[in-house]
Amino acid sequence: MQPAVEARQRIARLSAHLNPTNSQMEVNTMLERVDCRAKGGSPGFKVAILGAAGGIGQPLAMLMKMNPLVSVLHLYDVVNCPGVTADISHMDTGAVVRGFLGQQELEAALTGMELIIIPAGVPRKPGMTRDDLFNINAGIVKTLCEGIAKCCPNAIVNLISNPVNSTVPIAAEVFKRAGTYDPKKLLGVTMLDVVRANTFVAEVLGLDPREVDVPVVGGHAGVTILPLLSQVKPPCSFTPDETEYLTKRIQDGGTEVVQAKAGAGSATLSMAYAAVKYADACLRGLRGDAGVVECAFVASQVTELPFFATKVRLGRTGAEEVYQIGPLNEYERVGLEKAKKELAASIQKGISFIKK
Ligand SMILES: NC(=O)c1ccc[n+]([C@@H]2O[C@H](COP(=O)([O-])OP(=O)(O)OC[C@H]3O[C@@H](n4cnc5c(N)ncnc54)[C@H](O)[C@@H]3O)[C@@H](O)[C@H]2O)c1
């Protein structure tokens, strides 16, 4: 390789995070995507985080920079992104980090990406329900998904922005309009409910939470969050009081954090952990690993509703198999009916937002 070309490539690589327009420059200077790795970095996937400078976005960006399955990490936000990007880019892990600031850089942030994680939006404040967030976050998700449809229509999308029960149907409508909708690739992240359920159940059983697997089905708000305590692994049983306590605590986990933070936001650190656990499962699926199964809110035929959260098998093309709910006890059957009623309204609200 010519020394001048090599030097130009090296400079472009080093300064990639400082000036996002370098991604344009790379094309012009023949710096191919395959070369955009830190030396010694292992081959991996290209991941973008939209809303990367936020309460969830920052720890999420840090944890994704530590993930060996990531080769390129794009951080996009409408504020504060250069600082977060410079900071994260000093970590001596394999992934190359680039920052993108503002709507005019959205397309550059998305182009070539294989997994998009979206925690952009406003979080819940005390006294605010998830539905109060609806109008602001619905608009943000619509704009970002229009960009995805245009720039990386084959990417897997992990949608975190609340209310997930409505933002996933919104994203689906945007992709349908653009002619790019693939239901297997749109995944509403409900992993935090599973993470909380595993933790709280482990506390009651006196087990290590890493040994506990609690399926959580339905959706991601209040009574739509339905932990299936009858299907916990390892097999165990709960008294009616324990069932009531655990179900309520899992359903109100978000409120517990909002109240404890007293005006300073909602769950961010546990959410970033859960988002990375979920993104890592998606990347292992993309890589072709067998038996990657996690819960997510997806297009589904498991109930009469068009979207529903159950366990799904993640593969090279996204959610390749959506599992059934499985046998329920009477407590869970009552919970399921309540969940479906509320879910139906939230899904409809999302669809109407786009159709109006
Ligand atoms: N799915 C879940 O389990 C779960 C859990 C907790 C929070 N959430 C949701 O995640 C979202 C983010 O929460 P947070 O605490 O990080 O909020 P935050 O306000 O700290 O961060 C949100 C970030 O999004 C950015 N943003 C706003 N508009 C944008 C746009 N158009 N494009 C790109 N970025 C944009 C903001 O600048 C900010 O940096 C909220 O909607 C919250 O309710 C979901």
From TrEMBL:
CDD domains: MDH_glyoxysomal_mitochondrial (cd01337). The gene is LOC113731577. SUPFAM superfamilies: LDH C-terminal domain-like, NAD(P)-binding Rossmann-fold domains. It catalyses: (S)-malate + NAD(+) = oxaloacetate + NADH + H(+). Pfam families: Ldh_1_C, Ldh_1_N. One of its GO terms (biological process) is tricarboxylic acid cycle. Gene3D superfamilies: Lactate dehydrogenase/glycoside hydrolase, family 4, C-terminal, NAD(P)-binding Rossmann-like Domain. This is Malate dehydrogenase.
